[in-house]
Every structure is written in structure tokens, then in C-alpha cells.
Amino acid sequence: MAEVEETLKRIQGQKGVQGIIVANSEGIPIKSTLDNSSTVQYAGLIHQLVMKARSTIRDIDPQNDLTFMRVRSKKNEIMIAPDKDFFLIVI
Amino acid sequence: MEIVHVYSKLRSEFGRQCLFSDRPAELLLDLPPDPSLTLSFIQKSPRDQAVQACWETSEHQVNTERFETTSCGINHMEGGWPKDINPAEMEQTIRVRKKVEKDESFINSVLQLGSVMEHCIRQNNAVDIYQECFEDEEVVEEIQEPPSAKTVNIFRDPNEIKRTVTSLSWQPDGGRKLAVAYSCLEFQKSSKDISLDSYIWDIGGSERPQIDLTPHQDQYVHCTMFSVSENPNRPEMMLKPTSPLVCLDYNPKDSHTLVGGSYNGQIAFWDTRKGNQPVEFSSLEHSHRDPVYKIIWLQSKTGTDAFSASTDGQVLWWDVRKLAEPTECLVLDPSREGNLDQALGATSLEFEPTMPTKFMVGTEQGLVISCNRKAKTPAEKIVCTYDSHHGPIYALQRNPFFPKNFLTVGDWTARIWSEDIKESSIMCTKYQMSYLTDACWSPVRPSVFFTVKMDGVLDVWDILFKQSDPTLSLKVCDNSLYSLSVQDNGRLVACGSQLGEATLLEICSGLSNLQKNEKSLLAAMFERESKREKILEARQREVRLKERSRSEQSREEEAGREEGEEDPKQLIARAESDFYSLVEAEVKRREKKDEVMKVRRKKKSFSFGSFNSVLTAFWSFIFQEKDICEEKDVKDEEQRGTSE
């Protein structure tokens, strides 16, 4: 438990990180450093995006899988690390 | 030779069953081959015959029906919670969260993901992998590509009965919106059912959602403002005057206000923040009595002054805060008496913010009148006139870079004038195939201007590049184009057609970017042309003076001659006879000269040759063929002479 906290704190402490969200495979945010409404929005929308991306990669090559995703926008960059059951979103 | 075989059947046998019988063949005609006929044919061998074996294919085109889409936002609610948990209740959600956190797999995965993520973040912080390199390097000189323009969008009048686009105005300061005025200018052709609206269209790129105002299908004419937006089918806003708008102008200082001149002569003022109806419009008694053809905002401290021109011969100044009465009035009477009966109808108006006291009016009769607003008496207001075109002047604009030169368009030509030279234009295009209806200078390139014609063609002229022809000529639509407007950035051009289509075109960068030395080259060109005109003018004046002095002398000598003007027929006859005698004298002189040449065999100079060619042009026009042949012989001899 403490390691989880420590890891997240370390990431949060890095330069340029605005917020972290840990969400489960259904899109429910488990842990977050942002306010509730943003968290919910991010978790829901990004969950869909990750699902789509993953299925795309798998469709092209069934042996392949999504390891990391960066979405770069004008204002910021959203980094998504997907796992089997959870995914970590860093802005 | 006819081969006829007659079959006959009794009337009573009609309808009888056919009974066939065998019969030996009968020779009716025997045509033996006639070898003499082969002489009229030529044998061709070998012969080529292409044979192809493939299956038949056919081409078919299908166009799907237009699909209208609207975009709207979706509101997300929280989801994904297990069924028994109510997401609204904090306790339950917290409980679920805590449970998950305790799960081992959660801890493992977070640790793993965390390390991956950290790696990427560190990467980000170490080197900005997305930075723009080579940003500061100079833009490489573009290869001179052929000029082109492409249609970005077409806005069609959504009403059933199409009206002509009579005026277009871009929103100032970036111009995302285009205001388009629609009206039917043909005399008495507007029916009761046509909509009065004009529209504002949004040219796309706006982030806020479009508010759809449903068109009000009444007898009122709406003004729709066309915005070039993601939805070219629906205008962003409609303006509803009481009478169709003939012209429209955005306030250059305030991009929400517009002023428009309508068909019945009234002026109306809109504020787009306040809705479709005009905020104010002028009273009928004090407005123009004819359609207002042009209305322009003026530069003033209050930013609320505008002036309008109409074919009733008046130019009226208005303060939009108080539209009940015009603040000033000028009657376009060239004799400077302020007589409305003698006034010339105005069809275009020109105002340049850098010269706020002067303005110009283009009239129906083809005269351009230059006026000074600050003159004390109305008589002094009209400074000078330029006799320019054979028909009404549809467009008048000063060059934004060289305010002393202005462009006028009317009849079949476009002409460029210099303010100082009143006799004739310094530059003129060829007579085009169809009537020119509107023109304007490009706001970024001083040597480029655009014209539209009645055959639906948009011409882009670059006078530094080519003066005799348009640099780019585009057929925009099949019906005639009536109006034209260029956006402030010089890239987007909107033109309006007779059937209510406003087409938006994007000009290639070659024609919308300022080239090196362009200003100085163009200044030199204008200088040169003005000088030429001045010299010609001076010469003309001399000739006229001479004529006058000569005619005065002859009048003194002959007492019997009538004073006053000869009627035109006599003048023409006299001119003809003069001309013929001159030409004949010239012919004789040349013949004599040729003989001398033949004898001497001198080499001729080039200038003589060109003089000859000019004269031969005259002669071939006048004389009969016999003489032309004579002339040709003479010419041949000359050529032979020059070659030797």
C-alpha cells in the first residue's frame, strides 16, 4: 500500500506533471490527484480511447498489444500506461 | 435498274390460311461482275484491323442524397460502477475504492505502470522531443508555381426563389464572417414571395457552437449573414429588413455593427448582438428615392458616421445613432447648381480612411466625380470629374497602397486612373467579352486586382506580371457574377452570383503574398503611365488650340459662312473627304518614292518600314482589292529592297 502511495507521489513530484489518475478496467477512477468532475471525465473518456486503441493494435497483429500511449495536444500531453486490469493516466 | 416482284392477292383471300408450296428457284436477275468497275477502286493492302476480346463494362455514377448532420455535445455520467453501488453516494464509492486499493493485483500493476510512466516523464523532461526545430530559418523562396485559386465553399441562398447577391462585406479584424446582401435588382421582377433576408455566414474556425435561428418564412426579406462555417447550408445569422438590401457594410471599428442600404432607399442599422431586426432605420421621407447602391462607414471620432449613394442623384451622410434624418446631403449635379433634376445617378462610392475629406462617386452615366467633403459651399464640393466609361460605373476603389491611383470598372473594361490626369485613364484593360460588374484591389498586393464578369468568370489581374490579360481567369459559375469582396488578409475572395450563390475562393500564396520590390516597381509603373498620359494630354491640347486658332482665322476670312456649329453630318462628310484626300496624297507620294527607290536601291530604315505597315493597315481598310495588290507589289519591292 505504502509503495503505491510512494510511487504515485514520486510521479506527481516530477516536473510538468499536472495530475494522476488510476482507473480500473471499467473506467472507474480509483485514485486521483485532480478534482472529482475532471477525474470522472478523464477516466471515462480515456478508458474508451484506450479500449479502442488496444483493439486496433490487436486487430492489426493479434500478437501485439498496447504498451503505452501519448496524446499530445496544444495545451498538454496525456500519457496513458495500460495494464490488464488498470490504467494509469498522467497529465 | 429496278427489280420488282409483284405479289397480288384477292381481297376475298385476305385472312385465308396460308398454304405454302414448293417451287423451284426462279432466276430473277443475274448481275455479272463488271471488271471495268474495279478501275474506280484502289486496292489497299495490307490492312490493319484491331480486334479486342474483353468483357463489356459500363460506367455509372451515383451521388448519394445530401446528408445533414448536426453536432452536439454529450454529457457523460459516471459509469462502470458495479450494479449495487450508487455512484452518487460518497460512502459507497469510497468503500469500493478502498476495497480495490487493497487488492494485490492493483498494487503490482500500479508499481509496474509507475515505473514505465516515470521513464517517459523523465524522457520528456530531458529532451523536448516535440520541439520545433528549424523554426528560425528563413522561409525558402517558393518556386514560382502557376497561379491558382480553389473554391473553398459555396453558400447558397436557402430560399426557394433565388435572389442576386448584390453586395458582400467581410467582418473586419480577421473576418470570420461574411455578410451577404440579397435583392432582386431587375426592374419589377421581384415577386411577392421572395424572401427579403440577407444572411451572415461564418467562415468556419469558430469554436463556439452555432446557434440556429430558424428562418421565418414570411413576406419579410431576411438578411442572412453567411458565415463560412462547418455548416455551409445554414447561415449563421439572418438580418431582416423591411425591404431587400442592396448593399451592406460592416463597421470597421466595431465588428458587430452593420449598416445596410435597401431597395426602397432606406438605410438600416444592425447590431448583431441585438438580433435580426434592424436597431434603427431611416425614415422614408428623408431617405433616398431609389435603391441605395453603396453605403460606406466613415472615419469619425464617434465611429457612427456613414454615407450612402443612390441613383436618385444624392449622396447622403448619416449618423447611425439618429437615422431619422441625414446629417448632410450632396446633389450630384455636374453643373454644380445643386439641381436635383440635372443630377446624375450614383452607382458606386469610394472612401479611403487615409484621406477622410475626399471621396469619389461613380455615376450611371460613366462619370467619376471627385468631391471634397469639407468644402464650404455645395458648389465647391464637387472638385472635378473624370469621364471614364460608356456605361454605369459599377466599382470604384483607390489602390490601398497608392491612394492617388484608383480603379474603375464599367462597360467592358477596367481602367486605372491617376488623380491628376483627368482626360483619360493611365491604364486600361482590353475590351472583354462580357460586361464587368465589380472589381476590387487586393489589400496585400498593390499590383493585384480582381474583377468579376457577367459570364461568371472571376479574373485576377497582376499588372506587374501581365497587362494585357488577366493572370488568372476562373469560371466560378454559369450565371453572372454580380459582386466581389476580398478579405483583409488577401487570401479569401468571395463572389456573389445572380442565383444567390456566394462562392468563397482561396487564392494561391503567390498572388496573396507581397513580393520583393513590388511597391517600388508599381510606383514606377504608375509614374510612367501618368507621364505618358500627361504628354498625350498636352499634345491634345496643343492640337486643339491650333484647330481653334485656325478655325477662327477661317471664320474671319469667310464672311458668308454661318456662325455656330455645323451639324454633325456636315462635319462627318468634311472629315471623310479630308481623310480620303490625305490618304490619296500619301499614296501618290509613296508611289513616287518607290520609283525613286527602285532607281537608287537605297536601303530603307526600319522606321520607314513600320510607318509603311501602319499606312498599309489604313489603306487595306479603305481601298479596293486592286489597290491592295498594288500595295502588295510595292511592299514586296520594299522588302526586297531592305534585304539587299
**Strand residues, percent of chain A:** 25-35%
- The end-to-end span of chain A amounts to 23 Å
Secondary-structure arrangement, i.e. CATH architecture of the domain at 149-204 and 230-515 in chain B: 7 Propeller
* Main interface: chain pair and counts: A-B, 37 and 29 residues
* Sequence stretches where pLDDT stays below 50 over 5 or more residues of chain B: 205-224, 559-565, 624-629
Give the name of the CATH superfamily of chain A: Dynein light chain 2a, cytoplasmic
- String of helices and strands of chain A: HEEHEEE
CATH fold field value of chain A: Beta-Lactamase
Mean pLDDT of chain A, to the nearest integer, reads: 85
Percent range for helical residues of chain A?
40-55%
* Total separate domains of chain A: 1
Query: What is Rg of chain A?
Result: 13 Å
Structural overview:
The complex is a heterodimer of chains A (91) and B (644). Chain A has a single domain, classed as 2-Layer Sandwich (Beta-Lactamase). Chain A has two helices and five strands, in the order H-E-E-H-E-E-E. In chain A, a hairpin with a 4-residue loop joins strand 3 and strand 4. The longest helix of chain A has 25 residues. The radius of gyration of chain A is 13 Å and the shape is globular. Chain B is built from eight helices and 29 strands. About 5% of the residues of chain B have low confidence. The longest helix of chain B is centred in the C-terminal third of the chain and has 40 residues. Chain B is α+β, with helices and mostly antiparallel strands. In chain B, strand 21 and strand 22 form a beta hairpin. Chain B has a domain of 342 residues: Methylamine Dehydrogenase, Chain H (7 Propeller), CATH 2.130.10.10. In chain B, the strands form seven sheets. In chain B, strands 2-3-4-5-6 form a five-stranded mixed sheet, with no helix packed on it. A four-stranded antiparallel sheet of chain B has the order 1-29-28-27. In chain B, helix 6 packs parallel to helix 8 and helix 7 packs antiparallel against helix 8. Chains A and B meet through helix 1, helix 2, strand 4 and strand 5 of A and helix 1 and helix 2 of B.
